[in-house]
Write a structure and sequence with these properties.
Chain A: This is Phosphate-specific transport system accessory protein PhoU. Chain A: It comes from Halomonas shengliensis. The complex is a heterodimer of chains A (242) and B (287). With 242 residues, chain A is mainly alpha-helical. Chain A has one domain (14-240): Methane Monooxygenase Hydroxylase, Chain G, domain 1 (Up-down Bundle), CATH 1.20.58.220. Chain A has helices at residues 14-46, 50-81, 85-121, 128-151, 154-184, 189-221, 235-240. Chain B has a single domain (40-283), classed as Rossmann fold. Chain B has eleven helices and ten strands. In chain B, helix 7 runs parallel beside helix 8. Chain B is globular, with a radius of gyration of 20 Å. The two termini of chain B are 32 Å apart. The chains are: A mainly alpha (242), B alpha/beta (287). Chain A binds chain B through residues 1, 3, 7, 10-13, 16, 82-89, 222, and chain B through 242-243, 246, 270-276, 278-280, 282-286.
Chain lengths: 242, 287
């Protein structure tokens, strides 16, 4: 059956309501921090702000701590409440989502480290157009994934699954143009490689946002759409299920 | 309230009509079905009432062979009533009125030619509180065999050992078979009762809250036993403990107010039930 975003506040045990509510709140807080980390990491590169880059690297510890805290809370709920049905799916989705958010945090940190190297090397702004374009796309994906999680919005989640394909195409095209730079000018190899790592990190962030969207479908519909080709997903059939 | 007189046949007919004609149709939730050759028990259109109080409303389901089927639901939902109907324990209550059919391996259990004692041998029952007879461990298990008569002592000895082994109790009692059954712990007594039931070779074992009076370790032993027994017979379990239903059953039926709400594979029912009523009950939500 379909569930709505307020379903986890209707238990006879108010304490249980509160515990599940806290899981969602803490995941959203982690999502907010991770979203900002990605934004700051890209800003550090585009604006040449290495201090901001170092701050992103430092903040990654806070992201890791949040994942550990959320995991511990989920463990407590599993041990004490033995949740079933949509409650169980919520706990599983939160554990998985926290793991993907932590990986997005790692990618942001990777972007920031490479940005600091590029800034220190003073290598101009070649390839920044591609980074700007893809970063805007994946940041929107992360934001939409978190929104779909907060609202239990499977329609939005399914849109993201298709968007990830677009990001992959943009990434491939950016890589091709960066390779052309390298072939044209051997001195650009080192900075272009750093840019490639950044683009690779952005592309991975898109993959993690896509994973978050898949967890929303699992949470709301009870359907596991991981490892399913996006073209094989029947959005109408998923919407009807419930 | 005074004693109610056993109602006359005419009264029972009227009660039946007035109770059941007003009963709502079953919830109509998605319900799993088994082919006739996969099921041991088939319940069709079963309604049952205590006097004028309806307890089961137009239930239709089949119980699969060599599987554990759990009936869950809130107090008063009719799950124990349904279980007791399966070996005609309601026959003793004059007030009970019934409509619909129960078939055991294709045969109507209420047909006039059915011998109730034989039915209860084929469909054994274990209750919530262990109820060993006030006699030795051996005599408890041999009781049903002796009632059947015609068996030699050697054969009875073998069957008692087999039943105690099947009930995972043999190792604990083999050196004190002549001791009183009352010397056993609660968990051992419950396994003794299961051995007593197994000794007469039932095809179906009905378990009504078999572990609710036991400590967690004894409960796990009973659950392990239930799991092991399904290769030999079909089991139907009534339990308030949803985790227990989730742990040991293959299929779960959720009943509410005498209706069958949802019936499906346990793994689906506890992770992704189809109906909101089921979801609300198993997750402890207000309805």
């Amino acid at each position: 059956m379909d569930i709505s975003s307020d379903i986890h506040s209707q238990h006879i045990s108010r304490q249980f309501n509160q515990e599940l509510e806290e899981l969602k709140t803490h995941l959203m807080a982690m999502g907010g921090l991770v979203e900002k980390q990605v934004q700051d990491a890209v800003a550090a590169l585009l604006e040449g702000d290495s201090a901001l880059g170092r701050q992103v690297v430092d903040n990654d510890r806070a992201v890791n701590d949040m994942q550990i805290k959320i995991d511990a809370e989920c463990t407590q709920v599993l041990a004490r409440r033995q949740p079933t049905a949509s409650d169980l799916r919520l706990v599983l989705a939160v554990i998985r989502a926290a793991s993907d958010l932590e990986r997005i945090g790692d990618e942001a940190s990777k972007i920031a480290r490479n940005a600091c190297e590029l800034i220190d090397g003073d290598n101009g702004s070649r390839g920044f157009v591609e980074v700007r374009m893809i970063s805007e796309h994946v940041r929107r994906m992360v934001r939409d994934a978190l929104t779909s999680f907060a609202r239990f919005d499977t329609e939005l989640a399914l849109k993201l699954v298709h968007e990830d394909e677009e990001v992959d195409n943009e990434y491939q095209s950016a890589m091709r143009s960066l390779m052309t730079f390298m072939m044209e000018d051997a001195r650009s190899i080192s900075p272009v490689l750093s840019l490639m790592w950044i683009l690779r990190a952005l592309e991975r962030i898109g993959d993690h946002a896509n994973n978050l969207a898949e967890y929303v479908v699992y949470l709301v519909k009870g359907m596991d759409i991981r490892h399913t080709d996006p073209d094989d997903l029947d959005a109408e059939a998923i919407a009807r299920k419930g | 309230m005074g004693w109610r007189r056993a109602p006359s046949a005419g009264h029972r007919e009227r009660a039946l009509e007035s109770v059941f004609t007003s009963s709502p149709a079953t919830a109509g939730g998605p319900i799993i079905d088994f082919a006739a050759d996969e099921s041991c028990l088939a319940i069709e259109g079963l309604s049952l009432a205590y006097g004028e109080t309806p307890a089961l409303r137009d239930l239709t389901l089949r119980v699969p062979r060599h599987r554990v089927t759990a009936f869950i639901g809130p107090s008063g939902c009719g799950k124990s009533t349904l279980l007791r109907a399966l070996n005609r324990l309601h026959d003793l209550n004059e007030e009970v009125v019934r409509r619909g059919e129960i078939r055991l391996e294709g045969q109507d259990i209420h047909a006039p030619e059915v011998d109730v004692a034989e039915l209860r041998r084929r469909v054994g029952m274990v209750f919530q509180a262990p109820n060993p007879f006030p006699m030795s461990i051996y005599d408890n298990v041999a009781f049903g065999l002796r009632l059947q008569g015609g068996l030699r002592k050697r054969r009875i000895d073998d069957t008692v050992e087999w039943a105690l082994q099947s009930a995972a109790l043999w190792e604990e009692v083999k050196d004190r078979l002549r001791a009183s059954a009352w010397t056993l712990s609660g968990g051992q007594q419950q396994r003794l009762v299961i051995a007593r039931t197994l000794a007469v070779g039932p095809e179906v074992l009905l378990l009504d809250e078999p572990a609710s009076a036991l400590d967690p370790i004894s409960t796990l032993k009973i659950e392990e036993l239930i799991r092991n027994l399904k290769s030999r017979l079909s089991l139907v379990l009534v339990t308030h403990n949803m985790q227990q239903a989730a742990r040991v059953s293959d299929y779960t039926a959720f009943l509410q107010r005498g209706e069958l709400v949802e019936y499906g594979p346990t793994q689906t029912l506890f992770t992704n039930p189809r109906l909101a009523r089921t979801e609300n009950y198993i997750t402890g939500r207000m309805t």
